[in-house]
Fold each of these.
Amino acid sequence: MTDVAARVAAGGLLAGPVVVLLSGGRDSVCLLDLAVRLAGPVVALHVNYGLREAAGADEAHCRALCSRLGVPLEVVRAGDPEGNVQAWAREVRYAAAERLEGAIAVGHTATDQAETVLYRLVASPGRRALLGMPARAGRVIRPLLELTRAETTAYCEVRGLPWREDASNAASARGRLREVLALHPAAEANVARTLAQLRDEAAVLDALIDVDADLTTLPPALARLTVQRIAEPAPVAEHIDAILALAARGGTGHVDLPGGLRVTVEYGRARVARREGAVAPSVRLGVPGRVAWGEGEVSCEVGAFAIADGTLDAAALAADLEVRPWRPGDRMRPLGLGGSKSLQDLFTDRKIPREERHRLPVVVSDGDIAWVPGVATGERFRARGDGPRVRLTWCLDSAADERRDRRDPRPGGRPPAQDQGDG
Ligand SMILES: Nc1ncnc2c1ncn2[C@@H]1O[C@H](COP(=O)(O)OP(=O)(O)OP(=O)(O)O)[C@@H](O)[C@H]1O
């Protein structure tokens, strides 16, 4: 076994049935070959977004490769892009993969990880942004996260596996980030080591948080983390300094957050609540996932990893949404089905494995199920024409998931109890 294959095997992620998301690029080509060698059964999924001129050639490449490796390939043709094209593309491929059996493997490498962290460093404040992509988040696995792009390239060359180059990468932000990484020969390894340290430290710090503490008595680092915990899953990072300044001044005051939330500070203690008259729905978490919300078309993601999002009719939604785990007996009227159906049957139709079902957030509006990510949208909540919309994004938070898994090593984490989505 080559060194690369031995290292990936040692990671233990490539075992059992796997759906490989195959773009045709070197990383996912390398991943597919390793999956064939180490896991099984393997199926590949390629999404033809039809956006680049080379899309047809990419698809043909994936078809030829899969037939050479003896891997069944599913090709999905995407419709017209909506909103942020990257987020839309990601949603399309995960939604397609969710319908297939097995772990969903993507080809992110240590190089992608380093690029992601560098990008987040400049694009969004807060330490969560710097924790990087997790090796496992729900059904999604990243078996190549410890390999550099140089290593996946060498692997493909040695194994005689052709790949497709994405010419648009060089000119993109990604291309520029690559130039930054090229400044140091051990860039990816250094970022990976820093990430591992940050995650360990984050776990220690998280254990120190007391949401009832007087913020003015805490060291600044702990005060910031406390505010973050109190406001989660609201996007609070940009507002923490204002909240702490308010606490330091004493007395009472408030800071408004996007999504209709308000952080009130009273004698050093912060609380978060829905702003009176705010139109955006509030959400409470009931599963080990996160839902973020926005007003109108503004979408807002919280957590390390956006897994699915849905756009619903704001006029049909209650001002307060309950987000809870699935309960036996739950029924809904899914879009396009013309009748009511049990969630259990919908899970079976969508091939959602039993152990994953309790992880899915069920979004309930006035007693009616409005949305279950990756499963269904309620008929009456369908976003219409140009009416007001609410966009919900379900994100897994790597840090929270890892903590939870440490507390409860059972597959799938702890059962759906009164979890309020810790951070
Ligand atoms: N069109 C697609 N169809 C299926 N999966 C895809 C597609 N595009 C990307 N992916 C998956 O998402 C991962 C990350 O996407 P990204 O855009 O970083 O990859 P890429 O540069 O196009 O290709 P690669 O990572 O394979 O070299 C890929 O490794 C692959 O697993």
Note: The chain is about 35% helix and 20% strand.
Amino acid sequence: MATAGAPRRFCRCACFCSENLYVARYGLHLRFRSEQQLRQDYVPLEQEVERRRRLGQESAARKALILSSYQPARPDIYYPLQDAALAPEFLAAAEYSASPGADLQGLLQRLETLSEEKRIYRVPVFTPTFCQALLEELEHFEQSDMPKGRPNTMNNYGMLLHELGLDEPLVTPLRERFLQPLMALLYPDCGGGRLDSHRAFVVKYTLGQDQELGCHYDNAELTLNVALGKAFTGGALYFGGLFQAPAALTEPLEVEHVMGQGVLHRGGQLHGARPLGTGERCNLIVWLRASVVRNRFCPMCCREPDLVDDDGFGDGFTRDEPTTVDVCALT
Ligand SMILES: O=C(O)CCC(=O)C(=O)O
Ligand SMILES: [Fe+2]
């Protein structure tokens, strides 16, 4: 039986007009209470923009200071990369990939396939001795009074290898001589055969510092993630779908770290790191870039890049320098 009472008036919450306002132009949900609040909320954003603008120059200044004043604990890490630092499986896979007639099937026999569908692979990269030496050097650097640039806003305790001067002896040869032939067979469609720059850094997780990493995609065509150590529990990597092609929600792929071993994946593969349980975890991350791919499509804004000159490898984009003509030679 219906009860007769005062008619009810249905309402909405006022937040409908002040919270979660979706601004399609920015792809963001914003809050709007007043113009003053909006300005206040945006101050940190302006500061972040300023910080990003200064990154390249500040990084170059740190690198110069480190080069002139830092005394390494392990100078051997700065010698040109020796095959002895590399795991035999990695050497074999790279040698096979560079040999005439090499094909994907042959290479896959030399790697561990973690997911065929996601095209995620694993292979031992460095010897345990090299991992230990690199960690010893990084620890020494961390304890020094040298200025330190951190990898990005998600990793506050890692280190940028180019600032230590490790690009030339270690990371560039690793990319050019070993990763390039492997990636050319594994990911020819992502610029694997046309890698021409990288951004290499070490991430560090421990209790009281960063302990996990949210789901993200990398500003890279391809990524190598090598577990350097130390002893820890938790901290597994997880992988979802490709960011450009969101798939139906499926169970993510969980990948445990194995010391010295590297995981290879596409930069656009959504991934993150589970919370650390105990101990300390350090991984070397190499974001591999192919300018032929990214010059057409910036993976961060998904548009043709609007190029701004930068220091070092910048973010891996290139612009054709106008060819200079030696006028004297013409006469
Ligand atoms: O924690 C890790 O090993 C992954 C780090 C990572 O994905 C990144 O820094 O881009
Ligand atoms: Fe990542």
Note: Residues 45 and 114 are 39 Å apart (CA to CA).
Amino acid sequence: NYVWPNEEIDELERILFEQDSIFGQPGSDLASFVSGCSGFGDGPQGGERNFGAEWLRTAYHDMATADVNAGTGGLDASILFETDRPENPGKAFSETFGFFSAVHSPRSSMSDLFAMAAVIAVGSCSNGKVIIPYRGGRVDAAGPGPSGVPQPQEDLASHTASFARQGFDVTEMIQLVACGHSIGGVHGVDFPEIVPNPPNTGTDNMVTFDTTNNDFDNKVAKEFVANNTQNPLAFGQNETTRSDFRIFNADGGKVISQLADSNDYFLSTCTTMLERMINTVPRSVKLTDIIKPIAVKPRNLFITPNADGTLYVNGFIRIANTTADANKSQVFIHPKSRSGKLLPVATATTKKGMSGGCDYPNCGPDFIFYMFNTTISAEDGISSFTIEIQNDAAGKTSQFDNGGSGFPFSDALQPLFSLSNQTESVVDNVVYNQLNVTALVLNAEDFSDISLIINVPVNLTAPISPWTQSKVSMKPLSKVPGTNHTLYTGSWKAASAAGTVPFDIVATGNKSTVSSLFNSWDNVPQFFDE
Ligand code: HEM
């Protein structure tokens, strides 16, 4: 019963399920960094960084300070304010943030992105055998939380108490640690007391938890039980820091043996435990339903006025390859006028191309992008459309009416990308982004205010910050001849630290408020100084 658009899930759905996108927008290459779960060589000692392992460790360290009885902490991205603590050594947290900050927005909190990082990492590292159901809705912390990430030199009693605070009993603690330590390892640069670094080489001696660093599998348990493990937290030179040894034996070795006995059991246990881990959030947070790939979703819809009083309407429809057949299907758009009258059908059979779903098996379908365009009279205008697929993936004709009222798309208020641009300038060594937007407004006399609204972080120097809206009043430019449309323009300029988060245009009046929300800067032509 998904209805487009949905502010809570559309952006998260795009980032998670639309990898290798033909639009090449930020985030569409995220999964490629953990593709095959392979590490990136760091030096002759064989040390390497496995980004998937870093993403998973980031999600755990962020969650590990939760207090489930108090209903506080959990996945809230507070880790970004806590990286100078002794319990959080290493590059993992800032590197994970580096990957995901490009898609951080009011519709995709950093904590939702850290949860997604764990989902993608484990999905990719297990080659699609562990698909953690993903929900959105997490809320970012505005500052540091309490400390309390478990550390390897602590004793079993403190680990048991710490996991109990996070909501996991002894059995679940053993399971969660085994799942986490299935990929990656201990880095000499972060923990020289556990994994000594060769002196003066500048390299990172990394010792993996098991022999399959690039595979999310039960080897970590198998090798531990078989007593031939290389896990530095189980049999490292320093007995004090053998936390995995103490934890895996916390119940006499029962659970770790079960995990060692069956990889299927290990994988299903980890799916459950890691889902619980990423869904550990403050009590005040309400998570969305599980986000699934959406079968039919409009994308980048544009309206441009022509000189002769008509409107050129074009856009893309993203269709899952489980719904349409890239070779056979024919796609048609049925637009409706402003008054609800059916307008001539537009064919959308030309394919812009395919996006490869998720980059790893079992995550979601690939998508086919169909292009359409049509010309309508400005007097008729447009309010919505429905989509018809002939010869769909099942060989039938199917209609998509977006829950009954069609896909909303209105010429009441639209940015005109061909008349908009973005520029970059440097003043006193500070780089500024400027966004110049021209918008098409119907019956402008009905509105008392038409504003360009940019979401910007309140605190430009913090790694993450609550958002605030920076508003610019747009001014009338000219009437579009032969129509009731008027062009409005507005310019917004700020230090580039304010980012290029999608922008809104909102027209408010006594009779109504209309808006065009979350418009991507990617669609705005760039004029950058060399
Ligand atoms: C008592 C609990 C735990 C302790 C004491 C502990 C300790 C450690 C230590 C010392 C490292 C090495 C980090 C580095 O050198 O950068 C590490 C790595 C890692 N931990 Fe844990 N850990 C615990 C639980 C968990 C849990 C529950 C998870 C996730 C579910 C997890 C996921 C990871 C991952 C993926 C790595 C590899 C990071 C990389 O290769 O860059 N850990 N852990």
Note: The mean pLDDT is 93.
Amino acid sequence: MLKFSRNYGFKAVKRDFQLLPEFKLKCGLEIHTQLNTRHKLFSYSTNDAFASANLPNHHASFFDVSLPGTQPKLNLEAILYATRLGLALKSNINLNSQFDRKHYFYGDQPLGFQITQHFSPFARGGSVELTKVLNGIDQEQIQIDITQLQIEQDTGKSVYKDSEKVSLIDLNRSNVPLIEMVTEPCFSDLKQIRSFIKKYQNLVRHLGISTGDLETGAMRVDVNLSVNNHCRVELKNLPNTSSIMNAIKFEYERQVDIIRNGLAKTLLAEPETRGWDGTSTVKLRSKETSIDYRYMPDAELPLVRLSADAVARVKASLPVLPDETIKLLMEKPYRLSLKDAKILTLNASGHGQQYTQKELLDFYLQAFNSALENNGEKANQRLLTNWIIHELLGDLNRLGLPLREAIAVVPPTKFAELVTLIQEEKISNASGKLLLFHILEQTRDGSLTQPADLHGIIEKFDLGARSVVDDEELLKVCSEILSSVTDPMMLSGITSGKRKNSLKYLVGQGMRLSQGRVKAKLFEDTFKKLLNANW
Ligand SMILES: Nc1ncnc2c1ncn2[C@@H]1O[C@H](COP(=O)(O)OP(=O)(O)OP(=O)(O)O)[C@@H](O)[C@H]1O
Ligand SMILES: [Mg+2]
Ligand SMILES: [Mg+2]
């Protein structure tokens, strides 16, 4: 099952991965997050490391390329963003933090050092709560403690071209503001790590300070992992969630194996940094080869002094955090299911999404209030939620229409009106779907720009429900459907009650012929009558 290689890596079967109680996993995370400020951390260049990938060195000022004589100028927007994050994590904001130089030489860091915060970081302490209900972890509730947050500049990017034996340097990313968030080694299983990353990612999106995307490198997670309190191994270069999870599984099994073979004293005696090559973790450097960074305060940057009052004002401006919103939505009067509350609250990736989370939540709350105002107790909130989450969002995706534009034609009040029409059976579910899609399609094509006249359209397309159906006509339609059935066993099965499900097939035929305007129940009753089914 296990194949050893020279660096004590092995190919393990990941399918049946499990943590063994006698080998305790301990993990701590370091997460680097790029801030989406307008400008870079210490220069006026536009902060756009990825939008112009085809234009290398396009967003790079003299300072970003380290021209001698240029000096850093601190971007206060980055300080504001870091304060928001620190407060949301319940950290203590350091009113006197400072920037330090971390020296090392690499082509994509032409300064010869990275400006970071080493001696006096931006914030310390804080915590994140994970629960079984909200985050899907195995334990009822755990707390992940935050060690610190530090602000630092990103490096440039090296692009290696093997065939040409050259490495190209792109400094678009150089000096993009980063926050490194370090946790205490509180994690003891994979689910905790996965849900923490998700929650943290959602938090930075919610605060509007970063895209939080792992795929673009806007968020980069390093995992520190030890087993049974041997030395920690730091795992770097993990580009997405599955790499993070697979690297942890692999590394855990590697360390367990080392311990089992009595080799911990030699192989896990000192901290080591390892990378991930897609199938195994590979050694990058050990302590002996680790660099002496010669940290020293950056003399060109003054202390970052914040007043307690400024911090208090940032705190007052923070949005309600997702956990609180979810709780609120699950209580009266909304009483949403956890799943629906999450859809309305948690940011999926912003890519290809036709709405921001805030736009969607606002839309929901306004439609909800409008339904409540119009119908009071009678309002069917579940129907409204379903129509927003399934029909509206589905249509927006299908049509590539942003919610912002749809709102001009179907404002929340109008949407609530549409759902009331369906609830009161003035139009059928199927007609409601047609109506909504029709309106949104016209909005996308630009032929509808004003709030839609629902009643006008219902009349024009004759979408109104047939509440009073001509009995004779109904009987005629049903008889036609029955005479087209080629399997006589089906009909006798319905009569005897042995094939109750087949009745649904017949009702479906009826609904199709009537384009959904006759209620299913009417068809059901008529078929049963015609077939003498008395069940
Ligand atoms: N015994 C341990 N097992 C697993 N993780 C640990 C252990 N001890 C510490 N850690 C984790 O190691 C990480 C240390 O990160 P920190 O940024 O402080 O130092 P670093 O990795 O040496 O510095 P750098 O930022 O240069 O990588 C933290 O996430 C911490 O929780
Ligand atoms: Mg580290
Ligand atoms: Mg670190």
Note: Residues 322-460 form one domain.
